Amino acid sequence: MNLEIEKKPIIRMFNVSKQYGTKLALKDITLEIEPGEFIFVSGASGAGKSTLLKVLYLAEKATRGQIIIGGMNLDRISSFKLPFLRRKFGMIFQDFKLIPTRTVFENVALVLEAAGEKPSIIKKRVMKVLESTGMETKTRALPPTLSGGEQQRVAVARAVVGEPEIILADEPTGSLDDKSAKLVLDALMGYHKKGATVLMASHNIFLLETMVRGRNIALEQGELVKTATML
């Protein structure tokens, strides 16, 4: 086993900026994230939290700077290698982004179907992640019949079913009550303990401080103003 390779950061950002017209959403972000870290990306609305996650996932391309994920330089990645990069990620959105006409099972299974997995493997893995998020009794339910907290737990299951190395969560508890938010955070922590690197954008720093240990990366008007360990 090569321990030197394991110690390398899974995410590296060098002077990364993102500009929309005349507005700089991110300003010269330089950051390293180790494998297995739980990172809180905090800041007020408009601070750049969502933009940071988008440039990592390549939903948006950085205007300047370099991002290296798992040894792949995002500025030079080919269209052929892009799907392999995307498989490293599991995405969780504040507005769930579930398909309303597909059942809970089908929403989660889509990730594995797109990867070409066999039906027998899909059924086993989907049921496993639904059990881990407490949604195993809702496999045939349609998303509109579920509460916000239940829909977000389905979104967590969808994000982790492909066993990604990195989970990006954009305000996943923003629209939830405290009880539902705790259930979602518990599910995320379960996968973090299994080795996943988690980046979670949230303005609710009090909730995070009382529940989870990790590193807080604070943004203000697109700039990195603080990075500190939360105990």
CATH architecture label: 3-Layer(aba) Sandwich
CATH class: Alpha Beta
By DSSP (H or I, 4+ residues per run), the number of helices equals 8
Q: Biggest sheet: strands, sense, closure?
A: 6 strands, mixed
Number of strands: 10
CATH superfamily: P-loop containing nucleotide triphosphate hydrolases
* Rg from Cα: 17 Å
| CATH fold naming | Rossmann fold
Helix content: 25-40%
* Percent strand: 25-35%
What is the element string, with H for helices and E for strands? HEEEHEEHEHHHEHEHEE
Shape: globular
List the helices and strands and how they pair.
Elements: H1 3-6, E1 11-20, E2 23-33, E3 38-42, H2 49-57, E4 64-69, E5 72-73, H3 82-86, E6 89-93, H4 104-114, H5 119-132, H6 148-160, E7 166-170, H7 178-193, E8 197-201, H8 205-211, E9 214-220, E10 223-230
Molecular structure report:
The N terminus is likely disordered. The protein contains 8 helices and 10 strands. It has 231 residues and is of the alpha/beta class. It is globular and about 45 Å long. The strands form 2 sheets. The chain has a 6-stranded mixed sheet, sandwiched between helices. A 4-stranded antiparallel sheet has the order 2-1-4-5, with helices on one face. Part of the ABC transporter FtsEX involved in cellular division. Important for assembly or stability of the septal ring.
Entry summary:
Belongs to the ABC transporter superfamily. The protein contains 8 helices and 10 strands. With 231 residues, it is an alpha/beta fold.
